[in-house]
Amino acid sequence: MALAPRSRLGRYEVIAFIGAGGMGEVYRAHDADLRRDVAIKVLLAEFASDAERLKRFEREAMATAALNHPNILAVYDVGTYEHVTYVVSELLDGSTLRDLVARGRLSSRQALKYAMQIADGLAAAHAKGIVHRDLKPANLFVTSDDRIKILDFGLARILGDSPLDDGSRGTTTAALTGPGMVLGSSGYMAPEQVRGLHADHRADIFTLGTVLYEMLSGHRAFHRDTIAGTLAAIVESDPPSWTGDGSTQSQRLMRIARRCLEKSPDDRLQSARDLALTLADESSDATVTPAGPTNRAPRRVSVPWATAIAVAGVAAFSVPQFPTTARASLWSPLEARSGSCTYEA
User: Fold this and answer.
1) In CATH, which of 3.30.200.20, 3.90.550.10, 3.90.1200.10, 3.50.50.60 is domain 8-90?
2) Which of 77, 120, 134, 152 is catalytic?
């Protein structure tokens, strides 16, 4: 049942409904103790007794709360009030990157700025042993002050050597996100995710490559008419050629994107930190115009593509939609999750 305005969850007073998806509803609320507006994500009542859904909801809160970084959504609180399970986060003002790209491709300078922030946020998550595994424009929020916030760690994998893995959660985490399960959003999964294989931090590098490609070109890297076709393209095909907007910088950024999109994890950039440094070098180069010849050699990032692998059949299902709002917040939009796979229309 939807929460009515002025209803309360402990010290939080509900102000307005923001959006809903497969697992929860998000509300704008007021924190009476700290006198600030926040976002509250509430687990739907029908999932409260579902152990797997509850574990995923709790893992999302745990993973996000463990990360203190300007490019990752801040989580303030988690709890249960009168059988309602909820997570409290900062309230964001702006729109998703998906909304921005839908209006047309971004300039190479803007794409570089956002890619650097995403890479920085991922590097912080990976340093904590957390792999996002569902990065996409819909899970990247652009605030009104032009800062990227990474949302929705609902499919995150907490690696065994993470300080967050205390041993008691290891079996559950592996069962929810282990090999053999297809997890992610169809147009943004890494090839190893499509095949249900082990996906480590390099899967996030692949998906960041799809996001960078889309920001630069205005088109999805592997979009086809069907979900099965899209997944096959991820494993078998290269993204369509794009010559850039005429600038040298856009061409260099596209080469970086394609390096991230190598089919084999071993052929990609091996860490988000390396990617962030590569992008920072590009940003530094873009701000300096040499007065004459320079001895600095251009950075080369192209390497051969890995051999393609055939894809078996994939089942699809529908995703509920909800209106876009100018003031959005926690994990927005919330994608429907059924079984072990998330698909986007």
Assistant:
1) 3.30.200.20
2) 134
Task: Let me know if 134 is a catalytic residue.
Answer: yes
Q: Give the three-state DSSP class for 148.
A: strand
pLDDT (average), residues 132-158: 87
Q: Which of 248, 269, 272, 250 is nearest to 259 (CA)?
A: 269
51-65 vs 170-177: helix axis angle to the nearest 10? 110
Burial of 243 (0-12, 13-18, 19+ CB in 10 A): exposed
Distances (CA, A) of 215 to 68, 187, 257, 283, 325: 26, 14, 10, 16, 21
Cβ atoms within 10 A of the Cβ of 39, count?
24
- On the question of a common fold for 8-90 and 94-286, the answer reads no
Residue 128, token pair as written in the block: 């904590």
| Among candidate residues 191, 212, 186, the one with its CA nearest the CA of residue 202 | 191
186-245: pLDDT as tens digits: 789 999 999 988 889 999 999 999 999 999 999 999 999 999 999 999 999 999 988 777
In angstroms, the CA 50 to CA 345 distance is: 26
Tokens of residue 226, six digits: 């069907």
Q: Which class does domain 94-286 fall in?
A: mainly alpha
- What pLDDT does residue 37 have? 96
